[in-house]
Amino acid sequence: MSAAPDILASLADALRAGRGFAHKRDIARVMEQLQADDSGAARTAVPNGDDCAALPLPGGGYQLLAIEGLMPDFVQQMPWFAGYSAVMVNLSDVAAMGGRPTAVVDALWSADADSAGEVIRGMQAACRQYGVPLVGGHTNLRSDGAQLAVAVLGHARRLISSFGARPGDRLLVAVDLRGQWEGAAPFWNASTRAPAARLQADLALMAELAEDGLCDAGKDISMAGVLGTLLMLLECSGQGAQVRLESLPVPDAEAGWRGWHDPAPEAQAARLRWLSAFPSYGHVLAVRPAHAGEVLRRFAAHDIACADVGEVERGTRLRVSLGDAQATLWDLADEGFILARDTRAAEPCHA
After folding, report:
1. Burial track 206-226 (b if 16+ CB lie within 10 A, e otherwise)
2. Which tens digits make up the pLDDT trace of 328-342?
């Protein structure tokens, strides 16, 4: 008898109960309050829930604004990598919307100059790697704990949006597998040791896809993992989807991968870790079928693993399969994920 149904059910239960899903669901509680004040909504090109705010520019195109706050325990335990990651994830948000970054600012709280210095050195290292200047910020060295937030300004000619997926789109997942786990954390690091020129070219690839009209719907993979990120994309777009787990790009055996059908507990732990991973370069894209082949070729030309893993479909369910086994990971008709109810199923953004 196949172990696939049990493996699939266990993975789905663990993802729903995990930290990544829980933190993303907090967004809905804030979104409900934002709905009461729509004073800025008319000035944005996309609703709340996308990776960046997108402000139309008078001469065409968009100004992009992204901000990320890091968990205090991460900043305290891994200050250099937290500083690096804070810049990296913001640059990824800008790229995910078809943009190119302009500059970085930060807000840093620390108990002393030495601890703050490690965070700052991490941010500076990321800015050098990606060729984006750190132009200012806010600093407090008299805090009881370590806290960090980073914001990035960018620009886009055409947008990739979380609100643009359509039924029939091919779901493509692109991940840079040329990396390794960062300690025991669920961070797949393909950035800190990579050549700067390669990182900058890979980051620009998303803007090129948007500008060439090959993709207008997608998100970068966040701490909710690949399936949680897809769920956010589907909720924003008012769609459902089906995903074949076996088609997802995965690291090789040397990185701890043991395959999808191995029933051993350590294999299940490796699968869950990968599905929960926050990769330094990872995107979920909804692409028109006519463009899917070219998008796959573009990523292959950069040596970035990219695979067709499923299809966007009408409905509210995110369904996942493993062999012949199927399960519903989430049904948005029963429970929302990140959006306030009035925001769900907004009209797609076609920039």
Report:
1. bbebbeeebbbbbbbbbbbbb
2. 999 999 988 777 555
Residue in 183, 109, 102 with CA at minimum distance from that of residue 149 = 109
Among left, alpha and beta (phi > 0; psi -120 to 50; other), residue 223 is alpha
Evaluate whether 149 touches 67 at the Cβ level (below 8 Å). Answer: yes
Q: Give residue-wise pLDDT tens across range 57-96.
A: 999 999 999 999 998 888 999 999 999 999 999 999 999 9
Taking the C-alpha atoms of residue 36 and residue 29, their distance in angstroms, rounded to an integer, is 12
Report pTM.
Answer: 0.91
E strands in the chain: 53-56, 62-70, 99-109, 134-140, 147-156, 170-175, 180-181, 187-189, 218-220, 240-244, 278-279, 282-287, 305-313, 317-322, 325-331
Pairing of strands 278-279, 147-156: unpaired
Helix axis angle, 225-237 relative to 265-275, nearest 10°? 40
* Rounded Cα gap, residues 78 and 119, in angstroms: 9
Q: Cβ atoms within 10 A of the Cβ of 136, count?
A: 9
The residue extents of the domains of the chain are 1-38+161-351, 51-158
Give the angle 300-304-306 at the CA atoms, nearest 5°: 75
- Which pLDDT value is given to residue 71? 87
Fold adopted by 51-158: 60s Ribosomal Protein L30; Chain: A; (3.30.1330)
Give every CB contact of residue 207 below 8 A, 6+ residues apart in sequence: 95, 98, 99, 100, 156, 157
Rounded distance between C-alpha atoms, residue 181 and residue 277, angstroms:
9
Q: Are 175 and 304 in contact (CB under 8 A)?
A: yes
1-38+161-351, what's its fold?
A: Phosphoribosyl-aminoimidazole Synthetase; Chain A, domain 2 (3.90.650)
Structure confidence at residue 345 (pLDDT): 44
